[in-house]
């Protein structure tokens, strides 16, 4: 018997997730599936909610929210033991970057139909310094963007906060000296950004690792080396289409292991949109078996 738990972040997408409860309920009650809702009441709670749902016998967990909600749910699934668990996301946050690689249609109610069908596939998961990363782990210019966005959001809500922080970082961020070991090959670089990814998108739609496949058993690494400010500003828009790979200062690798060490200032580690620490960073493929609904 299938048993589904919808974990709803009531503040995601400015309440868009909460507004989905009724339509989900209306649709599911016609299916005969067993299901329930759990609504988070504070930041960071979704991890323990997912853990408890599994301990209570739920085998299918669906985050109703954005990337932040999904990431927390994945940590809980990993801690409870992901064997025979199917994860899902009904995207209604600000970025929804991981769901873009899972589903061609981003409408949550269309994705709900896929959930009802119940077909799933195994998806890779990364392990970044012990934290599970389903989408993208990044070090460099994105760190100050994430921190500044949090601060600016308190004064200016919405996407403007992210835009302001991004422009500030593009104007002021200085390249950092790093040592990167990719499958035992060590290189030294002056970098603006290093990403080790499973998914393709980060930062709300930037196609940073356009060649990534979520089930190929490989980590996609994109390194953006030092460029002039003028070149950086002119190249930046191309990231949204994944066309930055044509730029000579951008390097791309597929591998099984990445180690990043700072040679000057330490870099913030951003795992799926959350700052979780600093360099040194060790990224490998996690042994967790994690399944996602697919279409
Ligand atoms: N009841 C709650 N009150 C406040 N924060 C919550 C609550 N439930 C979950 N959260 C937090 O909301 C954060 C953002 O979640 P998510 O990314 O899913 O939505 P979002 O709308 O895309 O948000 P953001 O704009 O911050 O990216 C997560 O860090 C999560 O821990």
TrEMBL record:
GO terms for molecular function: ATP binding; kinase activity. Belongs to the diacylglycerol/lipid kinase family. Its cofactor is Mg(2+). GO terms for biological process: phospholipid biosynthetic process. This is Lipid kinase, YegS/Rv2252/BmrU family. Keywords: ATP-binding, Kinase, Lipid biosynthesis, Lipid metabolism, Nucleotide-binding, Phospholipid biosynthesis, Phospholipid metabolism, Transferase. Signal peptide: none annotated. Residues 1-132 form the DAGKc domain.
